[in-house]
Amino acid sequence: MATAWAHRYAQRTKRMSSSVIREILKLTQQPDIISFAGGLPSPDVFPIEEFKQACDVVLSEQGKQALQYSITEGYPPLREWVVQRSSRYGINIDIDNVLITSGSQQALDLLGKVFIDPGDHVLVEGPTFLGALQAWNAYGAEYFTQPLDDDGLVIEGLEKVLAEKPNFMYVLPNFHNPAGVTLSGERRKQIVELAHQYDVPIVEDDPYGQLRYSGEHIPPLVVYDDQCHGEGNEKYCGNVIYTSTFSKILAPGIRLAWVIAPKDVIRKMVQAKQGTDLHTSIFTQMVVYEIGRDGFLDRHAKTIRAVYGERRDLMLAAMEEHFPPNVTWTKPEGGLFLWVRLPEGVNAQDVLEAAIEKKVAFVPGAPFFPYQGGENTLRLNFSNASHEQIVEGIKRLGEVLHQELAETSKV
Amino acid sequence: MATAWAHRYAQRTKRMSSSVIREILKLTQQPDIISFAGGLPSPDVFPIEEFKQACDVVLSEQGKQALQYSITEGYPPLREWVVQRSSRYGINIDIDNVLITSGSQQALDLLGKVFIDPGDHVLVEGPTFLGALQAWNAYGAEYFTQPLDDDGLVIEGLEKVLAEKPNFMYVLPNFHNPAGVTLSGERRKQIVELAHQYDVPIVEDDPYGQLRYSGEHIPPLVVYDDQCHGEGNEKYCGNVIYTSTFSKILAPGIRLAWVIAPKDVIRKMVQAKQGTDLHTSIFTQMVVYEIGRDGFLDRHAKTIRAVYGERRDLMLAAMEEHFPPNVTWTKPEGGLFLWVRLPEGVNAQDVLEAAIEKKVAFVPGAPFFPYQGGENTLRLNFSNASHEQIVEGIKRLGEVLHQELAETSKV
């Protein structure tokens, strides 16, 4: 391509760097690698037969509608399903509070498009979801980073950052990706109150809410936001934008998720989505509605929880057995990930290189921080590997860690 | 939502106004309205049985792959299908020149994300595709507008605008939406040469290329770009970014399209797409590949051409019979639209209001211009209405036009 021009766009997109994780995933797609790197659901639990039946029903009964252009907001019965399901969790909304998106990644992209101008700041957790940074880097976002501990986002120091007026704050309350921690109920309440006080909206990303294997359900932040649960046209007009997805409770390959927000925010996001992809595949929306309409997703979530919960327990037990004593990790109550902290001075990137030699892969923690930090941390996924792979992979990783720590005199 | 914040985002998104067309479509969804307003394909030609079979085959044979996360670039066999199909039209590429997108609208959005910073200029035709303006307004684009005549984009004056260095130029060569005109071969050659001379990339949007009902095929601009058809890694590295879609030759509701571009551009668009929606539904991609792999789309295009060609002829004949003599219109050789020019001083918006009274709808031409112009023009769609609706609707519209022109003393 013409060179002067190529240079121009290279400058323009320099921040849109390819995802580190996806590069690692490419490396680890060799079949003999045991990978704890991705965030893949287990294909063993995909309800393939239910998809087949639903495709047949939708195309037989409503084929013309399923293949024609549709409205940007999403398939009304599916949005109504979201309304009904949300009410179980105490989220009091109506259909105009719901937007269907092409995966949660698109929800994050649309939030960037609506809310971020170059140089604007977003308050994120450190570490945070890499896909959010990718989405918002493209809009020229800068970040304030607030640390996590075992109870989630740390409250100390939060007011000071909120006073800097970030455009919004981004929180993953349940079974954090990558950190594996869950935000306590007390902190959820405090965060919602502080966000109101400082007039900073909260984006609550909850892909794993239904995947709890132990402990007690904690209501989402949006439920703690009781400043404005009105009726009718203003049913929900609070300060929290909530997003969740069908990727973890059904299948990720279909790219289907939803956003719950005040109606004025939904309207802006709908406008942004019109110019972005017009609408999400109406065929897919109708198929997923057909699968989910009779309560299948609740029954299916139980199956998934049983499978993943067992894998989590197995991985935690294997780590206990094989990891050096001065390595620590989170004990997630759900989700797909846990987070490992190595002694200060040990670089997880070096550990990865040694692990790849032994045919085990994971993701180093540093890319999950917007600017710096986390060099001695790493993320492990426990949902995608088989029992045998988990046991063998953690054993090998333990050997690598013992060796690396010995070399850096940390054992 | 918190008011100070609501004001802030209202400012930020003021250009992201809702599509005029979609607002009109809402008005015209009353069942007794004859609508020439939308750009909907006819659902009568959707291959519903083929979709059913393909869903069954894909889920039965590759269900786990079809429901799992996939790569951003798109399903490799579908991209290979694009490569093979393109070679028939003289486009010499390989798989790394192809990106699958969630409809052409996403291709336009990704181009905006990669190439446009606020205040940058894009060279568009006047009139141009409204969806492109929507996509690029969100990135703060400004526009240079170059007029169309019956042979497409006017060459006179083009050099002067190219010398202003727009980030790219946007051209719809075949059966233009909304104008219905086709860019001549001679002009395609000239435009490609001028674009090279001024180092301005061309975005060639070709959703209707296969829908020609009369006249001779003209090669796409990308074929005239012979500066750089190399081999291997640099198979295509020219100056044209080409996009087309499955929406018009298969079904729009599934949101599936593709981009052909030099590999460095594809790489940037892949990075942008990662942060935008990770990937397009792999299930949908596999289903469409299954439908298209044996040549079905060529056979199906013949069916569509027969149906739409007849509707075009019927509409043109009815206009000839019923429209006032000082109203003119384009005679499209394909596509879905024709463009009507009323006498100067007649406002198509007023005509629309009178037409809605008579239960006929169309889209006024002004919104298809980025800043101003086209007040006395309008767009008619001929693909979606039945024969009876076309005859009756054009008759009523003729009555409205006679009356409106008489009132403004233009008859």
Descriptive tags:
14 helices; 411 residues; Aspartate Aminotransferase, domain 2; 14 strands; Aspartate Aminotransferase, domain 1; alpha/beta; eight-stranded mixed β-sheet; four-stranded antiparallel β-sheet; 2 domains; homodimer
Strand order of the largest sheet of chain A: 2-9-8-7-6-3-4-5
Low-confidence stretches of chain A: none
Gyration radius of chain A (Cα, Å) is 22 Å
What's the end-to-end separation of chain A, in Å? 53 Å
Biggest chain contact: A-B, 83 and 83 residues
What is the count of distinct domains of chain A? 2
Strand count, sense and barrel status of the largest sheet of chain A are: 8 strands, mixed
Please tally the helical runs of chain A, counting DSSP H or I stretches of 4 or more residues. 14
Spell out the CATH superfamily of the largest domain in chain A: Type I PLP-dependent aspartate aminotransferase-like (Major domain)
Oligomer: homodimer
Question: What's the order of the H and E elements of chain A?
Answer: HHEHHEHEHEEHEHEHEEHHHEEHEEEH
Q: Please, what is the average pLDDT of chain A?
A: 92
Q: What class, by secondary structure content of chain A? A: alpha/beta
CATH C-level class of the largest domain in chain A is Alpha Beta
Strand content of chain A: 5-15%
CATH topology of the largest domain in chain A: Aspartate Aminotransferase, domain 2
Number of E-state strands of chain A: 14
Shape of chain A: globular
The second-level CATH architecture of the largest domain in chain A is: 3-Layer(aba) Sandwich
